[in-house]
Amino acid sequence: xxxxxxxxxxxxxxxxxxxxxxxxxxxxxxxxxxxxxxxxxxxxxxxxxxxxxxxxxxxxxxxxxxxxxxxxxxxxxxxxxxxxxxxxxxxxxxxxxxxxxxxxxxxxxxxxxxxxxxxxxxxxxxxxxxxxxxxxxxxxxxxxxxxxxxxxxxxxxxxxxxxxxxxxxxxxxxxxxxxxxxxxxxxxxxxxxxxxxxxxxxxxxxxxxx
Length: 210
Hints:
Elements: E1 2-3, E2 23-33, E3 36-42, E4 46-48, E5 51-59, E6 63-72, E7 78-88, E8 96-99, E9 106-109, E10 114-121, E11 125-134, H1 137-149, E12 157-159, E13 162-172, E14 177-187, H2 190-209
Parallel strand pairs: 1-2
Antiparallel strand pairs: 2-3, 2-7, 4-5, 5-6, 6-14, 7-13, 8-9, 8-12, 9-10, 10-14, 11-13
C-alpha cells in the first residue's frame, strides 16, 4: 500500500520492486468536540487536536499490513473517527467489489486478478464500518458528505471501479493509545488469495505476541 501521489501534502511510501503496489490509501480524521465538527487528512506522524497518529507498513510478495496507532494526549475521555480510503488499482475489466456478510472482508475482483482487504482494531471500545464508493462523481459526492457528517452510507456491492472506505469509530480513555491494522492481499486466483490472507494474519498475530 502507499499514499496516493495526487495529494500534494501526502507522504509517499517507497516500496521494494518485488512487493505489491496496487493498493493506495489515504487517512482522514473526524472529531466532534464542543459542538463543532472538524475533519482533516492525516499524514504520517500527524499531530491533530491533541491526537497523535503514526503509520507503519510491512510489505511482502503476498501483500501488505498497514499498522496505525492513535494516541489521545489529553487527560479526558474522547472520541475520534478515522476514515481509511483504499483504492485497488489493477488492470482488467469486469470489475466487481463486495463486502462479505459472513466475515466482513472486502473483496475486489477483475478479469485478471483478485484482492481482499481485512481490518482489525486492538484493545479498543469502538467499531469498524465498511462501505464501497464508486469512483464516479456520485462517489465523490458521497465522500464529501461523509467528511461533513462523519458517517458512511452502507453500500456492500458495486460493479466497476470502486473505492473501499472503512470507518474506525474509536473511544479513548485519558492518554490511551489505540492500534489498528489493515491487511491487503492480492493474487491471480482465489485459492492463492485465501492462502496469502491466512499467511498475513498469522504473521500479524506472531508480531503482536512478541
